[in-house]
Amino acid sequence: MRILLKNAIRLLDDGSLEICDVLVEEGKINAINTTIENIKVDRTINCNGKLLAPGFIDVHIHLREPGGEHKETIKTGTEAAARGGYTTVCAMPNTNPVPDNEEKIISLLEKINKDALVRVLPYASITKDLQGKELTDMKNLSKMNVFAFTDDGVGIQTADQMYRAMKEASSYGKAIVAHCEDNSIVYGGVVHEGEVSKRMNLPGIPSLSESVQIARDVLIAEATGCHYHVCHVSTKESVRVIRDAKRAGIHVTAEVTPHHILLNEDSIHEEDTNFKMNPPLRSKEDQEALLQGLLDGTIDFIATDHAPHSKVEKEQGMLRAPFGIVGLETAFPLLYTYLVKPGKVSLKQLIDWLTINPADVFRLPFGKLAEGEVADLTLIDLDKELIIDKNKFSSKGKNTPFHNWKVTGVPVLTIFEGEIVYEEKNKAYV
């Protein structure tokens, strides 16, 4: 399909903006110029000064299929991704069955090829059935081009297990992606151990449960030469450890979620399970350290940890409801509204954190708006305002703490490999 995007605005490397036309052909960006005329195309779209950016990349989402289709499916999850401007997502392995051998990966890839609207790169688990006991066959799984190895949702509890996992993954050029949580000091917590846990009389999760594993793991990464990536960093101590490890030349990278950047424990005013996630919302000081970590490069990019659950599951109260919130459809508008517009970060920084930075960290050939690159694109109306309405999500999951928040800056068109996979219904950009 040949698509001509007219009068788009693109960000240049220096952060300035320019108006341009972009020609998409055979899944690639064929040309970018001030004006492209007299070209026969299947469709011309007048972008009317909307921002054209590379398709977003999210290396941390949960699609729930197979086994959790009541929460989300590959189809609904990638519909949500496309609506949020994402063209590449990486699916975590806490499904049933767990993708821990070749047969299960083949089955998963068949489902992805059949139902996904955007690019889905699956993780394989570090240990069989996520049990933390026996390592998976990383050699054969690596040959199947799994994205990386993780037991996300479960911290690797022993140094021996992580050491052997990193040695194996490193030998095959794969990253270990870690949910960092020492179960021996979680104490059954459901929120951060702090003011809110005291006020609401709920068991708290100490910050130390996260940071102590990161401190252990960066030394193991140094010893093995493995690329070690830290999921959803949430504490100031974790930021400090990662910063020190980077200064020491250790191959460690990290991500932060929109909710940990925009919320803290003081955002929880009542027992609302839409504020229950793991890691939990930490203190204001932690929140400030996370933003500073993003700004100084300690934290490499933003990932949503999109974690849909059913309404019934989330209605069980703080002690019993599962951890997690959805995030694919709200990430950009929230971050643009509450970080870029107040001047806390630049638009260029935000776009980089959602595109080129995760691509560079994991050596992905995506995330660029340039001639010859894959035509993964999102068109964003930076002036469009809306009220977030969970009932209108494409995702099956409605579990968000951002319901009824007013936002500006909305993806209105998403192109994946040269094909339109999401288009705003009223086509206000045309």
From TrEMBL:
<dbReference type="GO" id="GO:0004151">
    <property type="term" value="F:dihydroorotase activity"/>
</dbReference>
<dbReference type="InterPro" id="IPR002195">
    <property type="entry name" value="Dihydroorotase_CS"/>
</dbReference>
<feature type="active site">
    <location>
        <position position="305"/>
    </location>
</feature>
<feature type="binding site">
    <location>
        <position position="60"/>
    </location>
    <ligand>
        <name>Zn(2+) 1</name>
    </ligand>
</feature>
<feature type="binding site">
    <location>
        <position position="152"/>
    </location>
    <ligand>
        <name>Zn(2+) 2</name>
    </ligand>
</feature>
<comment type="similarity">
    <text>Belongs to the metallo-dependent hydrolases superfamily. DHOase family. Class I DHOase subfamily.</text>
</comment>
<feature type="binding site">
    <location>
        <position position="309"/>
    </location>
    <ligand>
        <name>substrate</name>
    </ligand>
</feature>
<keyword id="KW-0665">Pyrimidine biosynthesis</keyword>
<comment type="function">
    <text>Catalyzes the reversible cyclization of carbamoyl aspartate to dihydroorotate.</text>
</comment>
<dbReference type="InterPro" id="IPR032466">
    <property type="entry name" value="Metal_Hydrolase"/>
</dbReference>
<feature type="binding site">
    <location>
        <begin position="323"/>
        <end position="324"/>
    </location>
    <ligand>
        <name>substrate</name>
    </ligand>
</feature>
<feature type="binding site">
    <location>
        <position position="278"/>
    </location>
    <ligand>
        <name>substrate</name>
    </ligand>
</feature>
<keyword id="KW-0862">Zinc</keyword>
<dbReference type="InterPro" id="IPR004722">
    <property type="entry name" value="DHOase"/>
</dbReference>
<dbReference type="GO" id="GO:0008270">
    <property type="term" value="F:zinc ion binding"/>
</dbReference>
<feature type="binding site">
    <location>
        <position position="62"/>
    </location>
    <ligand>
        <name>Zn(2+) 1</name>
    </ligand>
</feature>
<feature type="binding site">
    <location>
        <position position="94"/>
    </location>
    <ligand>
        <name>substrate</name>
    </ligand>
</feature>
<dbReference type="GO" id="GO:0044205">
    <property type="term" value="P:'de novo' UMP biosynthetic process"/>
</dbReference>
<protein>
    <recommendedName>
        <fullName>Dihydroorotase</fullName>
        <ecNumber>3.5.2.3</ecNumber>
    </recommendedName>
</protein>
<dbReference type="Pfam" id="PF12890">
    <property type="entry name" value="DHOase"/>
</dbReference>
<dbReference type="InterPro" id="IPR050138">
    <property type="entry name" value="DHOase/Allantoinase_Hydrolase"/>
</dbReference>
<comment type="pathway">
    <text>Pyrimidine metabolism; UMP biosynthesis via de novo pathway; (S)-dihydroorotate from bicarbonate: step 3/3.</text>
</comment>
<dbReference type="GO" id="GO:0006145">
    <property type="term" value="P:purine nucleobase catabolic process"/>
</dbReference>
<feature type="binding site">
    <location>
        <position position="305"/>
    </location>
    <ligand>
        <name>Zn(2+) 1</name>
    </ligand>
</feature>
<feature type="binding site">
    <location>
        <position position="152"/>
    </location>
    <ligand>
        <name>Zn(2+) 1</name>
    </ligand>
</feature>
<dbReference type="InterPro" id="IPR011059">
    <property type="entry name" value="Metal-dep_hydrolase_composite"/>
</dbReference>
<keyword id="KW-0378">Hydrolase</keyword>
<dbReference type="InterPro" id="IPR024403">
    <property type="entry name" value="DHOase_cat"/>
</dbReference>
<feature type="binding site">
    <location>
        <position position="232"/>
    </location>
    <ligand>
        <name>Zn(2+) 2</name>
    </ligand>
</feature>
<dbReference type="GO" id="GO:0005737">
    <property type="term" value="C:cytoplasm"/>
</dbReference>
<feature type="binding site">
    <location>
        <begin position="62"/>
        <end position="64"/>
    </location>
    <ligand>
        <name>substrate</name>
    </ligand>
</feature>
<dbReference type="GO" id="GO:0004038">
    <property type="term" value="F:allantoinase activity"/>
</dbReference>
<keyword id="KW-0479">Metal-binding</keyword>
<feature type="domain" description="Dihydroorotase catalytic">
    <location>
        <begin position="49"/>
        <end position="238"/>
    </location>
</feature>
<feature type="binding site">
    <location>
        <position position="179"/>
    </location>
    <ligand>
        <name>Zn(2+) 2</name>
    </ligand>
</feature>
